[in-house]
Amino acid sequence: MKKEVPKLELVPDYMELDKKICPIKAVWTIGNEDYNQESDDDVILYQDSKYPQNFCLSTSDYNSLGYYVDRNEVMFINKFVKKKYSVSMERKYGVWTVIPTPCGMSWNFDVYNTYQEAIDSMYEQVAE
Questions:
Q1: Which end of the chain is less congested by CB atoms within 10 angstroms, N or C?
Q2: Given strand 43-48, what is the order of strands in its sheet?
């Protein structure tokens, strides 16, 4: 089943039009469902820059974001943050790393602020 590409629509908050800077609300449309954010809380979307249908809405879902990435590959991630008055985009970098567990070793998808940090974490695993 094909995953829908999320679409972001920025809508003026008509309840506060009398202010000099009109707040915006974000409406993420994924398939036929709208995820409407009307509170002052930030809305965050992590999206694979190569395959936009691959995304997650929470840091706890990083492993699903990295599902289609090879163990020796770096994913370029666009992090969209909607604040009350603006929307910004940040570039992040994701790689699979090995973590110890009580039952042995396991893979975990980690996201880094710089490309170099992501590469270093991959080489760190090879050296161990």
A1: N
A2: 55-56, 43-48, 75-82, 87-101, 104-112
